[in-house]
Amino acid sequence: MDIEKVVAVYVKIRDEKSRIKKEADAKCAELQSKMDRLGAEIQRELNRLNVQSVRTDAGTAFQKEEIKPSCKDWNVLDTWAIAEGIPPSEIYEKRLSRRFVTNYMADHDGETPPPVSAYREFTVHVRRGD
């Protein structure tokens, strides 16, 4: 196997993939912008008609409430949850911060906080040559 050729082909394929993705992302952004404008028009019409949905031959447009929570003060939320007896798992999504675990491991000779475990996976990365 000629590693020089393999790396060159890898870089060429990655560049082509990147080019295609960039084009697709630009097109998708353009389409999303158009859909957002049309969605605003539909919302205005639903409001004007004072209805939650409208059925057409092309499809049904409807309003759906989406709650998007945010927190101004995590410490206040933690204190409130403890006072209310609400387990953290009901409030927070269960996901570890990769940055925290990586930094902790770096500061503690590769050890993880109990009961955290870390799976190590080696992946190949290729940087473009000069």
Descriptive overview:
Residues 14-48 form a coiled coil. Keywords: Coiled coil. The protein is mainly alpha-helical. The protein has 2 domains: 1-65; 69-125, no CATH class. The chain is built from 4 helices and 2 strands, in the order H-E-E-H-H-H. Strands 1-2 form a two-stranded antiparallel ribbon. The longest helix is centred in the first third of the chain and has 47 residues, at 3-49. The chain is flat, with a radius of gyration of 25 Å. The mean pLDDT is 93.
Biggest sheet: strand arrangement: 1-2
Largest sheet: 2 strands, antiparallel
Please tally the β strands and state the result: 2
Average pLDDT taken over every residue: 93
Radius of gyration in whole Å, from Cα?
A: 25 Å
How large a portion of the residues is in β-strands, by DSSP E? under 5%
Range of helix content: 55-70%
Figure out the total of helices.
Answer: 4
**Shape by Cα distribution:** flat
Succession of helices and strands: HEEHHH
Cα distance, first to last residue?
A: 22 Å
Supply the number of structural domains.
Answer: 2
Low-confidence stretches: none
Keywords: Coiled coil
Coiled coil: 14-48
Question: Tags for this entry?
Answer:
coiled coil, flat, 130 residues, two-stranded antiparallel sheet, mainly alpha
